[in-house]
Design brief:
2 copies of one chain form a homodimer.
Chain A lengths: L14 E4 L6 E2 L3 E6 H4 L6 H9 L5 E8 L8 E8 L3 E2 L2 E2 L6 E2 L5 E7 L2 E6 L5 E6 L3 E5 L4 E6 L5 E8 L4 E2 L1 H6 L3 E6 L2 E6 L4
Amino acid sequence: MAGGEITVSNFKPELVTLDLKTYVMQPFRRGKQIKLSDLKEYFSDPEAADQILSEGKNPIIYEYYEYATPEAEGHLTFGVTTIYLGKVGKEYYMTRGHYHDKDAAEIYIGLSGRGLLLMQTKEGEAVYLDLKPGGIGYVPPGWGHRTINTSGEKLVFFFIYPSDAGHDYELVKERGFAKIVIEENGVPKVVDNPRF
Amino acid sequence: MAGGEITVSNFKPELVTLDLKTYVMQPFRRGKQIKLSDLKEYFSDPEAADQILSEGKNPIIYEYYEYATPEAEGHLTFGVTTIYLGKVGKEYYMTRGHYHDKDAAEIYIGLSGRGLLLMQTKEGEAVYLDLKPGGIGYVPPGWGHRTINTSGEKLVFFFIYPSDAGHDYELVKERGFAKIVIEENGVPKVVDNPRF
């Protein structure tokens, strides 16, 4: 991790480099790997998750590295997320998904691989968009969002959000998303979430 | 231009596509071409600009196309800027440059060509960063910023800023930037602006 404590007053311009072949971003200030054990209750088939874990495996589902800036109004945070290739039961690997605490947008830019950007309002309106290299998904303020890797390779995308957005994971944990993305007859299919 | 009047309440997720070969972004909601006649007083050698204009030429210096969203807190606007290849006197083609009305950051991501991202505070502290494919410049809130094409080809970059940032061009018009970027002995050089 680069940098020490960052504050509004000492924040200076700095060049960040995104390697366009490996998608490694340097420097970053915050990074995390999310494994199956962290995420198993978010999948629609937790028994399939338990089965994988009981075999002694705990694969990385996704990871992100971000250039975090002060959590103050006007600042932006950006970074790169990689969702690995795989399924839990029929359901493709995906991010946990979140709402923002504040009414704040987020932008996703596809870099490599293909997937879906699933969005929904708290009132239950659901929309999904294709995420592919050069595809840009705009998540308007108020929309919960999750990304899903439906491709036969890693899905890599760039993200940007207001640094003071805040992340609400609880609502997703309680209610899930209205739609889930599963493989059926070898192709991705968006279906209603039976547990929603 | 896509879309009609956009408001906070009717804003829905929509896929935007950035062609990674041509850097054309579709749909966009706002676009502008800035020609030499619009920008001549911003160059350090207005007589050189007048000379070009007097020959009946009025080249496009740069253009941008952006996916504008409601100018409300939490929204983000993004787009693509292309700075054409050329000089006015010794000074490379560049954007007008601006401060934001609010304390709001901006992110620049280099897509094609090479240039410089020049930044300065209102107190006069100046910094510049290389802009090249995969290079990401973070402009912290409060820093004025301008981009300059120092390469032998078009400079293309992606930008993101909070939609309610506001643009202050007056301060740049009055005082300019502390540094200018000129060609000297065939290479780019950042020097003090004699008019600052």
